[in-house]
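Intended use. Records like the one below are meant for learning the mapping from a protein sequence to its folded structure. Do not use them to infer anything beyond what is encoded.
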Amino acid sequence: MFKHLFSTMNEVLEEIQREYPNSDVEKKAELDEQLQVLKTMSDEFIESWLLFEEKLGKFYGAVPNSTQTLHDELMDLDLAGKQTEEFLRGQGYYKLSMYDQAIEEFEVLIRRQPDFLLARIYLAMGHLRKGEFGDAYQHFKFLLPLTENAKMKAISYGAMGCIQVQNHNLEKAFEYFQKAYHTDPSLVEPLINLDESQA
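Structure written out for the chain above:
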């Protein structure tokens, strides 16, 4: 049902991409309107899907009563190495939204401790918060095979889904959100929070 709709939306988008560079001002305005319609449809689908997932999670008792933030989930993941100077500085910069400095600290730490997964996921989140989706995506993708931790896998899948939403690749986003949900259903609300924060 959705595949046909998304296929049509992709065809329209591809047609707009072909026509746009050679269009005059009037035609570009018309194409801009079509792009806005596609974006609105995309946003509505994502919102409806996330609301459905949240309801489904509540039905199965998977969603915690109190709202958990993605950051809270990160803090619970891995205690090893947390007290290093670089980690504490990086975490402090991250909390202050000073992502360039946080990334610097976590990169130093990762070079010294490649298996320090919490630092690695903070590094990925720093890139995500800066809007550096390509770098963030690569770090999350790199993390997945390194951990058996369900929460860390779900956070990575969820973040990769949010990146795909930003790239308007809804089918891939749904696929990642489904993987996140099946890996750890308790992360439905944190994923919604993460997606809202990127809007």
